[in-house]
Amino acid sequence: MPHPLLHLAVALDTPQPSGGAAHDAAYDAAHLVALARLAERGGLTFVTLGDGFGRPGLDAPAVLARIAPATERIGLIPTVTTTHTEPFHVSTTVATLDWVSRGRAGWAVEVSTTEADAALFGRRPAAPPAEAWAEAGEVADVAARLWDSWEDDAEIRDRATGRFIDRDKLHHVDFTGRTFSVRGPSIVPRPPQGRPVIAVDATDEPAREVAAAHADLALVRVEDPATARAVREELRDRARGHGRDPGHLLVFASLPVELDDAADGAGLAELIADWRAAGAADGFHLRPADPVRDLARLVEATVPVLRARGLLGRPGHPGGTLREHLGLPRPASRYALARETA
Known about the structure:
- This protein has an 8-stranded parallel beta barrel, surrounded by 8 helices.
- It contains 11 helices and 12 strands.
- It is of the alpha/beta class and 342 residues long.
- The chain has helices at residues 25-41, 60-67, 87-100, 115-121, 129-148, 207-214, 225-241, 262-277, 291-308, 322-326, 334-341; strands spanning 7-11, 46-49, 75-81, 106-110, 155-158, 163-165, 175-176, 181-182, 197-201, 217-220, 250-257, 283-288.
């Protein structure tokens, strides 16, 4: 069954300007900070921000790094595309965001399958979806290994001896995939969460297999609670098949919302409550048509109804990290465990 209290999250993505219009980076960043603060005041668990190679806009991890010091509790999950991007850089980028946010970072795994994106890099042609997602799974695997490559107490900062780290507690990952190899260790100390939260849009195959093997959070775009529940059960069965605790894979229904007036916010609350009662999801990832209008109405109209019905907790979040907010354990470094066992 779903967790006692549901989680709400929201996408901050705004419509792209038409006709190739340029972005005002300072305005866009300030605008997104205001939206994130509003989501935090409403008690939402996290926000997501999309990214892409071939369209104008801001870099999602950089924007959320700007938002991090302007917020206190809300989780920050940028999209980072694995295709055409060095896995070591992906790992470092997400780990850095986790440090900047004091343990509130996640990573929405995405792939690119277009020739236009491939042409921007010129390294290789576009890959079909199955191949791109297989590579993404390997990137998620090696990223977790890189986050583990510093044990939690690897930093000793001993001024007397001039030693910053205990080299015995840094580890080479020595990973070889189908399209890349990574030696490691990371150049960033182990993130506050141990491993930042990995999210995957698991609506389609083969992303679903990557989610079952590597994700903490699966987002599924569905149209009815029965389908959502079936997908949730399928993903958890697959996670069990990978030797994972299925309870450590949270499944969120990802729903488009367009709230034309305040009454629509009372209607969204009813829909969420009904889906929740049907055991459809652990939480809801809402994709507003107009983030400025819809997020305000979500916070002012939907959230109070859900809270009055006992489905949402108080505005503050339990714990301090995104993992703690979601009720997920902090994983130990695999290398520390191996060294202790040896």
